[in-house]
Specification:
Layout (H helix, E strand, L loop, with lengths): L2 H21 L4 E6 L1 E9 L2 E2 L10 E2 L5 E18 L4 E11 L7 E2 L5 E13 L3 H4 L4 H5 L15 E8 L6 E8 L18 E10 L3 E8 L23 H10 L4 E7 L1
Parallel strand pairs: 2-12
Antiparallel strand pairs: 1-8, 2-3, 2-7, 4-5, 5-6, 5-8, 5-9, 8-11, 9-10, 12-13
Protein name: Copper-binding protein MbnP-like domain-containing protein
Organism: Winogradskyella immobilis
InterPro entries: MbnP-like_dom
């Protein structure tokens, strides 16, 4: 084999290898698979299930011991971003109800092409457009928000009891997240959006995939606002300042767990 022929052959091999490597980083639109989202819950790493409800066994950042009685929340618009920056948005929603063990495993009907995705995200609650629509399943679950507060739906209902950190007296809390509203009545106003996007990060999908989404419940009381249940406990829905604090604290609540295929 002469030197020129050897050089040409070596270049061809390198070109084929490079093309093969590149092809592994794009979506294979001919192969679509099912994705299932598994919602798990913890308190700073300690697993929480509904068997832990109605017991004073959690202590928040402010020192109050709490008992969880109900926890359910809404996620929507699951979005996959591919390596070209294109987004695939699944126009769907899921009510996660830890109290009754419903919605903990959610499989959207739309299948996803295999390949590398630079980010998978979802919306906590509804964006304003989705929140203006009518959903029979959420109506049946009594997840509605009163018209005097803008209507639509809750983003979360998180209820329980707490023991005061100062005198150990028992009180109720209703940590309900909605679209922040001022001027309750026939013409409420909205100071800022309080739904938010949760970015889970990159995922490589090669076959039917289970994606764990973790909620650290303790974070709702932590960052950046240390929540004082002695002050902010009930009647929080018409309190737009409290709703904005919930929005801020929610940014660190969710994270990506185990991905299995």
């Amino acid at each position: 084999m002469n030197k020129r022929l050897f050089t040409l052959l070596a270049f061809s091999i390198l070109f084929i290898v490079a093309c093969t490597s590149d092809s592994e980083n794009i979506q294979n639109t001919d192969v679509t698979v099912l994705t299932t989202f598994n919602f798990t819950h913890d308190w700073d790493g300690a697993l929480v299930t509904n068997s832990d409800f109605n017991n004073f066994q959690f202590t928040n950042q402010n020192g109050e011991t709490i008992s969880i009685e109900r926890l359910r929340y809404l996620i929507s618009d699951i979005t996959f971003t591919n390596t070209d920056g294109e987004t695939i948005e699944l126009d769907t929603h899921n009510l996660v109800d830890l109290t009754n063990g419903n919605g903990l495993n959610f499989s959207p009907e739309t299948k996803i092409s295999t390949g590398n995705y630079t980010n998978v995200s979802f919306t906590f609650g509804f964006d304003n457009e989705d929140n203006s629509e009518n959903y029979i399943d959420l109506n049946s679950a009594s997840f509605n928000v009163p018209d005097m507060l803008g209507g639509g739906y809750h983003y979360m209902q998180f209820d329980g009891k707490y023991l005061s950190s100062t005198n150990n007296e028992e009180g109720n809390f209703n940590y309900h997240a909605i679209r922040a509203a001022d001027n309750p009545g026939p013409n409420p106003t909205f100071p800022q959006d309080t739904f938010f996007t949760v970015d889970l990060g990159p995922i490589n999908i090669t076959s039917d995939t289970n994606i764990e989404i973790k909620m650290n419940i303790a974070e709702w009381f932590k960052n950046p606002n240390q929540w004082d249940l002695n002050v902010l406990n009930t009647v929080l829905m018409p309190n737009s300042a409290a709703q904005i604090m919930m929005f801020q604290n929610g940014q660190s609540v969710f994270s990506l767990g185990t991905v299995s295929q």
